[in-house]
């Protein structure tokens, strides 16, 4: 890989651009607005306001959606999932798993799952 390409990849990763674009695409497909450009501008403005603690950060899934996803992962109803299941769920949602430092013996409850997502 050329040095320029490496720098570009590093830049994108450092600023988490792929995750942002993935999340924006998911929001577009979930809401399917009539005016997608205006919708994206509004979402990005809400992200900025949320980061400044002036508004609510735009989420793709609400608590009911997260509970439903958790129940799909917890097929036998144990009340918890494994760290591996948790990481895969985060990846599926387009979220980073870099900061997830869980041992294989940890049990992820619904409350922990919601907080992490």
From TrEMBL:
<protein>
    <submittedName>
        <fullName>EFC10 protein</fullName>
    </submittedName>
</protein>
<dbReference type="InterPro" id="IPR049760">
    <property type="entry name" value="DD_EFCAB10"/>
</dbReference>
<dbReference type="InterPro" id="IPR002048">
    <property type="entry name" value="EF_hand_dom"/>
</dbReference>
<dbReference type="InterPro" id="IPR056587">
    <property type="entry name" value="EF_EFCAB10_C"/>
</dbReference>
<dbReference type="Pfam" id="PF24548">
    <property type="entry name" value="EF_EFCAB10_C"/>
</dbReference>
<dbReference type="GO" id="GO:0005509">
    <property type="term" value="F:calcium ion binding"/>
</dbReference>
<dbReference type="InterPro" id="IPR039879">
    <property type="entry name" value="EFC10"/>
</dbReference>
<feature type="domain" description="EF-hand">
    <location>
        <begin position="61"/>
        <end position="96"/>
    </location>
</feature>
